[in-house]
Amino acid sequence: MTTEYQIRLDRDACDGIFACLVRDDRFVEASDGLVTVEGGRAEQDGDGSQLVSFNDDRLADARQAARSCPVGAIDVLTEVDDE
Q: What's a Pfam family this protein contains (predicted)?
C-alpha cells in the first residue's frame, strides 16, 4: 500500500552507530561519518533536522530503522500523526 510519510533525521543527535542502515537502505553514511537519508523530497526542518518526504510502500522499513536508532535521532511522521 502506497503511503505518504516523512522521515525526520536529527543529525545533531546521530552518533553514527548505523543500526538504521541495515534496516532501510535509504539511510546511508554521509561523508562526515553520520547518517543521511537518500531519495524522496528533502528539506530542512525548522530545528535543522533533515526532513525527507516519501510516497511509497516502504513505511514499515522506515519505522523499523527509527526503532533501531539507540539515540532516537529518527522519527517517522504520517498524516495520522497530525490528527
A: Fer4_15
Cα separation of 81 and 9, whole Å? 17
Provide the grid cell at 6.
516523512
Non-local (6+) Cβ contacts of 2 within 8 A are 55, 56, 57
pLDDT tens, residue by residue, 28-41: 999 999 999 999 99
Alpha helices, DSSP H, located in the chain: 59-68, 79-82
Domains of the chain: 3-82 (3.30.70.20)
